């Protein structure tokens, strides 16, 4: 092998290992975030509880967003949440 080929193979190995490390760290970070963040349904139920509490206290009540409005969960979000929902 020529010295150029040796350096090329070495650099290729270094680049592949760097890319793999970044992908692996990103994957591990996403797993840990998913474990700590509450899901879509948990957020919906928490808001329903806040609304019920506000009604009982006679305070101005926050409202659930209508489907299709800005900030409302999309159909894709519900499909993704259904994939990770716990079976009862």
Keywords:
88 residues; mainly alpha; 2 domains
Explain what this protein looks like in three dimensions.
This protein has 88 residues and is an all-alpha fold. Helices cover 70% and strands 0% of the residues. The relative contact order is 0.08. It is rod-shaped. It is built from three helices and no strands.
SSE arrangement:
Elements: H1 3-36, H2 40-57, H3 75-84
Count of helix runs? 3
Structural class from helices and strands?
Answer: mainly alpha
Fraction in beta strands = under 5%
Cα gyration radius (Å) = 24 Å
Sum this structure up briefly.
With 88 residues, the protein is mainly α.
